Amino acid sequence: MRTWGPLTAVCLGTFMLLLDVTIVIVALPDMARALDASLSDLQWVVDGYALALAALLLGAGATADILGRRRVHVAGTVLFATASLLCGLAHGPDALVAARALQGVGAAAMLATTLPLLGSVYQGRQRSAALGVWGAVSGAAAAVGPVVGGLLAEGPGWRWIFYVNLPVSVVAVWLTLKAVPESRGPRGMRVDWAGTVTFAVFAGGTAYAVVRAGTDGWTAPATLASFALAALALACFVPAERRAAHPLLDLSLLRRPAFVGVMVGALAFNGVAFGVTPYLSIWMQTLLGMSPVRGGLTLLPMTVAAMVTAVVVGKRLHGVPARLTVGGGLLLIAAGCFCQAVLDAGSDRTALVPGFVLVGVGTGFVAPTVAGAALAAVEPARAGMAGGAVNTVRQLGYALGVAVFGTVVTSEMSGTLPQDASHTLAGGGAGALRGSFPEDVLRSAFASGLDAALVAAGCAGVVAALLVLVLVRPPRAAAAGVTAAAGPAPREASGDPAGGGAAARP
Question: Hey, CA dihedral for 51, 55, 57, 60, is it positive or negative?
Answer without folding.
Answer: negative
